[in-house]
Amino acid sequence: MPHSKLRLTSLATAAMLALATLGGLSACAADGSSAPGTSKVSILLTDAPGDVKKAVVTISQIYLQGSDDGQSGRVVLLNTPVTTDLLTLANSTAELVNDAVVPAGTYSQLRFVVTGGYIEVDDGHGGTSIYASSPDYAGLPAGAPVAGQLKMPSYAQTGIKVNLPDGGFHVSGEQKVLLVDFDVARSFGHQAGASGMWVMTPVLTATELTATGSVVVTLRKDAAVTLPTIGGTATTLGGFSADLSNGAGSNETTAFTDADGDGTYEAAFRFLVPGGYTLDVTGPAGVTFTTNPAHPASVSIASGQASSFGFTVTAASATP
Question: pTM for this structure?
Answer without folding.
Answer: 0.59
